[in-house]
Amino acid sequence: MSGVPPELRDLVARFDAPGALARVQGARPPGGGRAAAVLILLSRPADDYSIVFVEKNADLRSHAGQIAFPGGTMEPGETDPVQAALREAQEEAGIDPAGVEVLGALPKAHINRSGFDVTSVVGWWNTPGPLAAGDPFEIQAVHQIDVPTLLAPETRLTWVLPNGYSGPAFVVGDLFIWGFTAYLLDAMFDLLGWTQAWDTTRTAEIPPRFFSERL
Predict the structure, then answer these.
(1) Helix H or strand E encompassing 187
(2) What are the phi and psi torsion angles at 172 (to 5°)?
(3) CA geometry: angle at 73 spanning 27 and 169, to 5°?
(4) 6-149 adopts what CATH topology?
């Protein structure tokens, strides 16, 4: 199986460049952090690329309501982040691993707040099927968003906090993508050469539903 567009396969080769995603990797503590993996799943159901996201349940104690890539903590005895990312994508979004071709992985990133070392696996969905939220206590919904929508200047803004912290955000309808997921999207789009010029001075406060989650 390989329905990967040749231009995408060539672009993904940039993930191995020295310093790729350096601005989101974070300083790792001695011994590293807890291993985790996410799946950035690309497909082209129509004329444009799309990416799959999960929406966390609004009642969770951690990451409530967050928009994220399918993924999570690697289980005890699990050593392969690729397999972990595919497992989590199946559990959270109903994605059959057999229909996914792994293109590569972005450099490992450390999230200071949670202590995770996250490997972002990039995959191509060769045989797209229906998406289905897994455990309703964890996943509220699954979304497939077109890349041109994410890249559109009107979709993009900078989130700000009273303490001075800020970062990239993507607003698609009622979905507010920020935090680590938005940092990854922003850096990956730059790396792929897809980013369109947008107004970085356009700011917005993070919606109150996310106040329990601070970077």
Answers:
(1) helix 179-192
(2) -125, 105
(3) 60
(4) Nucleoside Triphosphate Pyrophosphohydrolase (3.90.79)
The span from the CA of 39 to the CA of 123, in Å, is 7
Which of 177, 149, 140, 171 is CA-nearest to residue 60?
140
Total number of residues shown for the chain = 215
> Which pair of structure tokens corresponds to residue 205?
């406060």
User: What are the boundaries of each domain within the chain?
Assistant: 6-149
Give 167: exposed, middle or buried? Use CB within 10 Å, 0-12, 13-18, 19+. Answer: middle
Euclidean distance between CA atoms 109 and 118, whole angstroms: 5
Cβ contact 93:54 at 8 Å: yes
Question: Closest Cα to residue 205, out of 154, 153, 167?
Answer: 167
CB 14 within 8 A of CB 191: yes
State whether residue 45 is helix, strand or coil.
coil
28's tokens: 């790792």
At 85, list the tokens. Answer: 């990312």
For each of the chain's 215 residues, which pLDDT tens digit applies?
468 899 998 998 888 777 776 766 655 555 567 889 999 999 998 889 999 999 987 555 555 568 999 998 888 888 899 999 999 999 999 999 999 999 988 888 877 777 778 999 999 998 888 999 887 778 889 999 999 999 999 999 999 887 878 899 999 999 999 988 999 999 899 989 999 999 999 999 888 777 554 34
